[in-house]
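Today's session is about reading a structure prediction critically. Students often jump straight to the picture, but the first step is always the sequence itself: look for stretches that repeat, for charged clusters, for runs of hydrophobic residues. Only then move on to the predicted structure, which in these notes is written as discrete structure tokens rather than atom positions. Here is the chain we will use throughout the hour.
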Amino acid sequence: MFGFPELWSFLLALLLIYPFVTLVHELGHAFFAWIFGGEFKFSLGRGKKIFKKGPFSLNLMYFLDSYCEYAHLKWNTRLSHFLVHAGGIIFNLGSVFLLNVLIAKGIIGQNPIFLRYSYFSVWLATFSLVPVDYGKGNYSDGLAIYYVLRYNEWPKLTG
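Below is the predicted structure for this chain, in token form.
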């Protein structure tokens, strides 16, 4: 049953854990864009901008959506664009793998926060792979990856 104690757990997940999962996801895209010599910017949330530092910005509703955009990769190949578009998924699943290894080796203990983080990371990675055209040239990671692999096209990343 969903009661008052579960409300705190829900708020923790909504306001802290999920935004951290999306931050890791966007850092994955940005990391691969940076590795391949690209320009990038990414933002967490929607609404009024409350913080900006370099290519990163944070918006008032930081728990609602995020995006990363990149351009002008120095290494402009099918593989480099594939890795940029898949970077968020790689980072999400890689972080879950790393958490599991650290727990299995006894370096960190099991904690419900790690379980929630892992759940949201796998959820985000899975749904990022669903091929969706959001309109105005914005695609899900899955559809962008499809265009890169199938048509050798470099769609704009907003994932």
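Discussion point for the tutorial: DSSP finds four helices and four strands in the chain.
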